[in-house]
Predict the structure.
Amino acid sequence: MTTGPTAILLHNARLVGRAGVAEGGWLAVREGRIAMVGGPGVPVPDASALSAGPDAVEQLDLGGRFVLPGFVDIHTHGGAGASLADPDPAQARIAADHHLSQGTTTLLGSTVTGPLGELEQQLPFLAGLVEAGVLAGIHLEGPFIAAARCGAHEPTLLRAPEPAVLARLLDLGRGTIRMVTLAPELDHAIAAVELLAERGVIAAFGHTDATYAQTSAAIDAGARVATHSFNGMRPVHHREPGPMIAALERDEVFLEVVNDGVHVHPAVVRHLFSSAGADRVTLISDAMSAAGAPDGRYRLGPMTVDVAGGVARVVHAAEGGGEEEIGGIAGSTITLGHAVRNAVREVGLTIEQASTAASLTPARALGLAGRIGSLGPGKDADLVVLDPDLATVGVMCKGVWAVGPGELRAIRP
């Protein structure tokens, strides 16, 4: 039986970190982790420094391509025509593999509002996907959100976050629920935030009509993430600042944003980064099953969604035999790979800012920055290789190539 290389050495790379880009850098991987990193002026180690013999080391000249930490998506519903909440594990893996192919090496599976009984049945299945390593955790988006800002969630199924109900859901998740989105203005919301904080679960606020004061109270109680900033929220008003101003004022709050050019105008994304910085803004896909799939009709929980030109919108059934109506935005059809390219090309961020917002910042939000999110010795070998046009040409997860290295060798100059 043949065995793979004991180590992988990537060199002639542009290593992207929070502080900048190291031209002519190199990176060594061993046993699923980053073993060594070096930049300009630091000699590339020979094979004997990495393994027992030169034949056991895979060496790859990247030809000046970018190497970024693997992307961390904390808000995703599906992809490649499949849903992460589908009770068929094969479908969930299809969705996860699609995001992995574009550079997302850490993925939360997000639910969408449905009958409470269905959610209770979903959670043990999703917990199994976390335990199997397909997902890094579960994000509950609904049913504890406001009907006035429900977006692509069925308003008749929404409910207040009663602590007893929330506690039962957390128990069914077997410790795999990492984040819960709720509306701070609902009954029991502050008690729910406090319960989540006690259980080590991130309380996020979103799909909310909360005032500035109500949002501030939720942050005081422990809420730490703004779910898809600006979308599904009371807008900023000069006499009622609303949730986003409350969030921007508090350094402890992480700010999700869907950078697909549809959900939020690039000028607003640019303002978000200039106001809060890449250390607080986290790029998310909020992708539904249509990500990476053709235009057409899809399901998002109990809702029907129409995708045209890559834009997903809720379909409202006709009343009295009339024509159906196409409503508001229903998630995105992008991956974080697209969001990073948009951040550099359309928003005008540096690649290090975009990388930080796609990797290190969400890793910090999850409390995982000691293991993922940056290119440092001892970190998991989760890497994304981008070409000069910022297209994904290589993805490594825990030291194993998910995309490449054959593809990389094929395009080597």
About this structure: Residues 206 and 227 are 5 Å apart (CA to CA). The first strand starts at residue 7 and ends at 17. The chain has eleven helices and 22 strands.
